[in-house]
Amino acid sequence: MRVVQKFGGSSVADADSIKRVARRIVATQQRGLEVVVVISAMGDTTDELMELALKVSPQPRARELDMLLTAGERMSAALLAMAINDLGATARSFTGSQAGVITTGTHGDARIIDITPGRIVSALDDGDIVIVAGFQGVSQTTKDVTTLGRGASDTTAVALAAALHASHCEIYSDVDGVFTADPRIVPGARRIPEICYEDMLEMAANGAKILHLRCVEYARRENVPVHVRSSFSDRPGTWVKDINYEEGGMEQPLISGVAHDRSEAKITIVGVPDQVGAAASIFTTVADADINIDMIVQNVSREHEARTDISFTLAQQDGAKAIKALRAVQEQIGFFDVLYNDQVGKVSVVGVGMRSHPGVTARFFRALADAGVNIGMISTSEIRISVVVDIDDVDRAVRAGHTAFGLDSDEQAIVYAGTGR
Amino acid sequence: MRVVQKFGGSSVADADSIKRVARRIVATQQRGLEVVVVISAMGDTTDELMELALKVSPQPRARELDMLLTAGERMSAALLAMAINDLGATARSFTGSQAGVITTGTHGDARIIDITPGRIVSALDDGDIVIVAGFQGVSQTTKDVTTLGRGASDTTAVALAAALHASHCEIYSDVDGVFTADPRIVPGARRIPEICYEDMLEMAANGAKILHLRCVEYARRENVPVHVRSSFSDRPGTWVKDINYEEGGMEQPLISGVAHDRSEAKITIVGVPDQVGAAASIFTTVADADINIDMIVQNVSREHEARTDISFTLAQQDGAKAIKALRAVQEQIGFFDVLYNDQVGKVSVVGVGMRSHPGVTARFFRALADAGVNIGMISTSEIRISVVVDIDDVDRAVRAGHTAFGLDSDEQAIVYAGTGR
Description:
Two copies of one chain form a homodimer.
Chain A: E1 2-7, H1 15-30, E2 34-39, H2 45-56, H3 62-85, E3 91-94, E4 101-103, E5 112-115, H4 118-125, E6 129-133, E7 136-139, E8 145-147, H5 153-163, E9 168-173, E10 194-196, H6 197-205, H7 213-222, E11 226-230, E12 238-241, H8 245-248, E13 257-261, E14 264-273, H9 278-288, E15 293-298, E16 307-315, H10 319-333, E17 337-341, E18 344-350, H11 359-370, E19 377-381, E20 384-390, H12 394-404
Parallel strand pairs in A: 1-2, 1-9, 2-6, 3-6, 4-7, 9-11, 10-12
Antiparallel strand pairs in A: 4-5, 7-8, 11-12, 13-18, 14-16, 14-17, 15-16, 18-20, 19-20
Helix pairs in contact in A: 1-3, 2-3, 5-7, 6-7, 9-10, 11-12
């Protein structure tokens, strides 16, 4: 049986951490498993390399930046292999390119196209532990070294698990798993033992930082069970996997968890002419500036004015660029003003169980009202309800949602869909 | 016309140095040349990585050490390419593997077998400046990353110059070229404008640190002219090349220079039985311990004792290992004792011109005697005379040799072979 384990930068921040992780990996092999490890760069290495690059060039060319940054994982992979070799096991390190991680050519944000793990399989056949440098691959077209974007070592791990037909992929972190809410905000938040891909996707997309969105997407597509757990303990963490509630006889939770995100901002375009194509022009402008938007709300048009307001949310880091792009078309489109507000937060309740339960929205909004939280914007999917609130209300909104759906830790911890009827 | 330029670690020690080197490289391209640059790791990077490795593992596996250390040149290559791209030229960096540097599989000390520079040529055809990470390659058999041994970026540069049919290879350093002696010892030492491969080989093998032996060997074999020069000036340095004195009408120097080496030690084995095979046993023992020896002197056997003394020199770093190996066979071979002395130095006069001049040895020894230097051991080749002297006599011996062969800087600086007759 094969397993892929991924350790992040904080797990290999110094020589002692590397040795600790090495012991853990060797213990896994000693339990009779074939082990492939995906490793991130040590501690702050990537940030330090980036700083060095900016000292040399104000805007480093992306190809060369990838060449530079990939040195980080290469170093940690080699060091980890050395540490394992001292424990009586044998390990071989591979770069992304050597491991057969084939990607698109978009430097800094490449996508994995294919994995050709010939060298990995042959090392496993030799009885070796395989260490793969995460976050990197090789462009299918140019054969240049690429990076998958920050934090994408998780995706490398899941992609390798799929290509190697591993039983599952273990993502190690400094927390015990996925929680029903951020325990720093909700002290009674509980570890979720199992969560389906859909819920994990929504949690990740709406602020839960434990797993990267692309990693979860990949895991769902390839049906790779992911075990998110702590590198500091042997306790079970959270299994992200396909859950058939009917078949397993399990009760489906109404809500899996409450996610929040303070990294967005809200832009309001005031006095948009109520004409065909005005909204299209606005969002074409934003899209052309290569900015992703999240929620959109268009106010009901005030008929006597023939004008409306449009609000949308986007990542704070794109704020200045968006404002600039919109100002440039203000006259042409003919709106009155652009307002920017980054003192907002998004709070989402997530759960596939809500599909069959129309009362969820009402219960959430009632809880927010009772907590005195004013709702700025609303957006829903089939399995998620998100609200934008004032940044000072985020914590209260998270706690209110968590309590309202019975997620607070006590003997009757989870409100199951079955009991809500 | 193509040129290969090699810059060492001190030339790219920080962001400012990298930018300075970048300007130099772009200026070369602007003179109409196709430029391939071989780069070492920044400043002390390699030592720092080695330190890190030793923190993780007392004896890091060689394959993984190569994986780790090669990150150094990868980083400097990427940074240099970024800096060049900011100057309006375009540069692409390549690892040794990407550049097609095919080597043997001896990790830490691999030899270049072949260069397959397809990607380099194609980048040059695109008008790009090519930056190659020095000191590294890829094993022909295992496809693993290899290093060529410390300082071997010079060899990478010469090998690439040969494979790319470059007009010549420029090795940049912090001095102006090859000198007739170390200017710190001989203030009147002169830069040698041209030196033949043979003399440069002997200089390098006998302590002149400016070029690595293997690099000169490669240059001679492939007939690549090497220009050794300073990265801090535009002055001409030293051309190492094939010199046909007959044809060029040049006068051949009797002596090219005086080299010295303080890194050796002398071992004397006392009371070796004067029997067939005793010396063979001793040197087999040393060879089996993987120790290279330099000079050997066997004393004339004292007939009434049927015993002799054997002395040889070796690198100081191998001293402890050699003593241990010899002590282990002392009883079996039956010698009396092993003496170790690292308070010695080797001084060599080098020059193809001495082939036709039997008087050179006499002149050198006379000069040493006049300077009060006692000669411990003597070794000669067709174009070199070396003596081992007490370490405190090294400077005096160098100066004596330098003066004796008229190398001191003045208007009649060089003693040409023709004038010595």
